[in-house]
Specification:
This protein is α/β, with parallel strands linked by helices and 406 residues long. The protein contains 15 helices and 15 strands. The protein folds into 3 domains: 176 residues, 2-enoyl-CoA Hydratase, Chain A, domain 1 (Alpha-Beta Complex); 57 residues, no CATH class; 114 residues, 2-enoyl-CoA Hydratase, Chain A, domain 1 (Alpha-Beta Complex). The longest helix is centred in the first third of the chain and has 30 residues.
Length: 406
């Protein structure tokens, strides 16, 4: 019996040791930079959610390849590809992109910056919605699959109202708001949009659409008015998209690769995966150096107290005590010469927001501080931003503070 138990225990320890060894090997391999062949074409697959930063969790520590691409990853990849002599161009493949308009505009600006390198940027889409087409239009050539779909037809906003549903189960929402345009409570207290809610929603849609028409119209050599008239006929089957001058050709992916080969003047297309190229350091291409700048992420809802850490899901929003402590650490670190606070937050607790605002004002007296807004910097997120100078946002950033609700 004792020998049996000893064997079981030994087996458990052996399995644990082998699993640990496997993890160490995988981490070692994932940290090793890949080799990039001369004349490589970077295939930039943009799909799914592109986050501001990856939260720290158990899976992220051991399996970096499973982490979502961040917005900074995309920025760095394009910056590296522009100067890397081994990269001869980019094949952009946007599909199912889950970002707000602030992030979409930032990525497109980075694509435009890459084009200054004079390297080819070609886009290929199979099914493209408004955001995918917005990104693809930055390319010199845009190709649509022969059996694809260009689902571009303008913008819309949908809001669900729950007042009548709640009343059927005997629930009445007791919410009060201060400010004519503070519409957060309306889905629970009304059964349709108020005039103020409709006004602000239309204003946001008009702003984003006008930017889309001007930007994409310039890329496609169309006036905003002509592009608007074309979009009113959407969505588009392949031949319709070609006739409307929204794409440059109808090609399968292998045919697009032939076009890439012609534009890059290469004998063959050496495809470089974006997840591999992401492991190439900025330092190796001479893109890092100078003063040390802290990039502080303020992402998610704002609440009082400490971080609510989830070992599987990671950080959960902006905790006032934890965040202010981080700001103090940054302020006390003499090696840090400046701070960028990146905000992507719809707001939250008023007291927590005020606590963070106070600490950010104190940090500003110690070091230069720039506020960079992402998709959203609203309510408490906007309150935090008021401590910075300058404050930078994109036309599609949803920002401002229009009242309170309780």
């Amino acid at each position: 019996m004792a020998k049996y138990l000893l064997g079981v225990i030994s087996g458990i320890f052996l399995c644990f040791f082998l699993a640990l060894l496997l993890v160490v090997v995988m981490v070692s391999l994932s940290g090793r930079p890949p080799s990039v062949a001369a004349g490589s074409t970077l295939v930039l697959d943009l799909g799914g959610e592109i986050v501001e930063h990856n939260p720290v969790n158990v899976s992220a520590v051991f399996f970096q390849h499973g982490m979502k691409p961040t917005l900074k990853d995309v920025h760095d990849i394009l910056q590296k590809a522009a100067v890397d002599k081994r990269v001869n161009g980019i094949l952009l493949k946007p599909g199912g992109v889950a970002v707000g308009w602030g992030k979409a505009q930032e990525i497109r600006a980075d694509l435009e910056e890459f084009k200054k390198s004079k390297k080819p940027l070609i886009a290929f889409v199979q099914v493209a919605g408004t955001r995918e087409y917005y990104l693809a239009s930055a390319a010199g050539q845009v190709y649509l699959a022969p059996e694809g779909l260009l689902d571009v037809k303008g913008l819309r906003a949908e809001v669900m109202f729950f007042k009548d549903t709640l009343s059927k189960i005997g629930v009445e929402a007791n919410l009060e708001h201060i400010g004519k345009y503070k519409s957060f409570s309306e889905p629970f207290t009304q059964n349709k949009m108020s005039d103020a809610y409709r006004e602000v929603t239309n204003s946001v849609l008009d702003t984003v659409l006008n930017n889309f028409l001007v930007t994409v119209g310039a890329a496609r050599k169309m006036s905003p008015e002509d592009l608007r008239a074309a979009l009113d006929k959407g969505p588009f089957l392949p031949q319709q998209a070609l006739q409307a001058r929204l794409v440059d050709g109808l090609l399968y992916e292998d045919q697009v690769l032939e076009e890439v080969k012609k534009l890059t003047k290469a004998k063959s297309v050496k495809k470089l995966k974006v997840e591999d190229y992401n492991r190439i350091s900025l330092e190796s291409l001479g893109l890092a150096g100078g003063n040390r700048i802290a990039l502080v992420y303020a992402v998610g809802g704002i609440f009082r107290g400490e971080d609510q850490f989830d070992p599987l899901g990671g950080d959960q929003g902006i905790a006032s005590d934890s965040f202010t402590r981080l700001l103090r650490d940054v302020g006390d670190d003499k090696s840090i010469k400046g701070v960028i606070v990146r905000i992507d937050s719809p707001g939250g607790d008023a007291i927590a927001s005020d606590q963070i605002w106070r600490e950010m004002n104190l940090l500003r007296t110690k070091k230069p501080m720039v506020i960079s807004m992402s998709d959203v910097a609203a309510s408490g997120g906007y309150y935090m931003a008021m401590s910075g100078d300058p404050i930078v946002a994109y036309p599609g950033t949803y920002t401002g503070s229009i009242g309170v609700v309780a």
